[in-house]
Each structure stands twice: as structure tokens, then as C-alpha cells.
Amino acid sequence: MAAPLFGFEQDGRYALRRIPMIVRFNLDAVGVRFDFAAWAVLSRDERQELVELPCETEQERQAYRQRLLQMLAPHADKPETAIRDIDIDPSPPWSQPTIPAQVVDTLSELDLDIPTDTQWQGLSDLQRFVLTKLTRPGHKNANLPAALEEFGLVGNGIA
Predict the structure, then answer these.
(1) Can you tell me the distance from the alpha carbon of 150 to that of 111, in angstroms, rounded to the nearest whole number?
(2) In 37, 127, 129, 140, which residue has its Cα 20 to 30 A from 119's Cα atom?
(3) How many other CB atoms sit within 10 Å of the CB of residue 8?
(4) Is 46 helix (H, G, I), strand (E, B) or coil?
(5) Which residues are within 8 A (CB) of 42 and not within 5 positions of it... i.e. 6 or more apart?
(6) pLDDT tens-place string over residues 60-115
(7) Is 33 helix (H, G, I), strand (E, B) or coil?
(8) DSSP, residue by residue, 114-154
(9) C-alpha distance from residue 120 to each of 30, 57, 82, 117, 142 (Å)
(10) CB 22 within 8 A of CB 3
(11) pLDDT for 141 beyond 90
């Protein structure tokens, strides 16, 4: 079952204007990257479908990838809508039982609470993925405080 959009992803105008974290999570799971231009050519219904389409089992991942390719096929003549294959990390940082150093370092730099390993383990895979993505080098971190609050990690970690 697909996760709903997070509150920090709702900007009040159009919830699916940006690529939601659940879709980013699924793209990593199926080994695909695409630019915002590819997301922008999809209809509102197609975007919603990618949010809701299951992507947990190997069969679901194959179906997700195939459906995404079908959605983008009418736009294949535009280079900006092309997808790129990426390697699927068999052991991504967010899946580890201890909080990744990148997350700890970024939270420390921003003077934000650092979750304990127990708190980290209590998060869903998608929540850990989100925190890993929002703390990657070069990221603006604009949604990071809101995500921490939404995940119940404000005031509960160690600063």
C-alpha cells in the first residue's frame, strides 16, 4: 500500500506539483531517475497513480517501472523527459539500523535534534529515506525541520 503525501510536501497550491518523496523512493527502488521536466509532462491523474501504485515486491517494482515508461512514452521525443537508469543500491544508507553519518552531520550543522538509533529504527523505510534525501550534500534542507517534526523527532533526540 502506498504511503500518503507528507504534510511538509503540501504547499497549498497543488500537492503534486513537485515530485513527492514516495515517488522518489519508488524511482530509487526501480532504478530510474528523471528530471522535473518529465514529471511536469504527466497529467494530474498519472502523477496520482505513481503516488498510489504499489512498489514493494519485485513484481510490483517491475509493474511500476513499466507503467512509468508507458506514461512517458508519448514524450520520448523530448530529451528533457528521458529517464536514466541508475544502479539499485542493495543496502542503501537509509536501510541501516544506525543513523547514517550524513544525517547526523547535517542535523548537527543545522543545530537540529539528532534521533537516537532506536528512534531511527522506529521510523518507516520511507521516513528514513526522506531524512537521508533531505540531508544530502548540497541540498537546501528547507523541508528538514518540518519533516523532523512530522516524524515526531523534534525535542526527542540528542542535540
Answers:
(1) 18
(2) 140
(3) 19
(4) helix
(5) 50, 71, 72
(6) 999 999 999 999 999 888 888 888 999 999 999 999 999 999 999 999 999 999 99
(7) strand
(8) B--HHHHHHS-HHHHHHHHHHTSTT---TTHHHHHHHTT-T
(9) 24, 23, 35, 5, 21
(10) yes
(11) no
Size (the chain), residues = 159
Type of residue found at 141: N
Q: Which residues pair with 114 in a beta bridge?
A: 158
Per-residue cell: 116: 537516537
Q: Which residues partner with 33 through β-bridges?
A: 84
pTM of the predicted model as reported, rounded to 2 decimal places: 0.90
Q: Which amino acid is at 123?
A: L
What's 49-91 look like in SS3?
HHHHCCCCCHHHHHHHHHHHHHHHHHHCCCHHHCEEECCCCCC
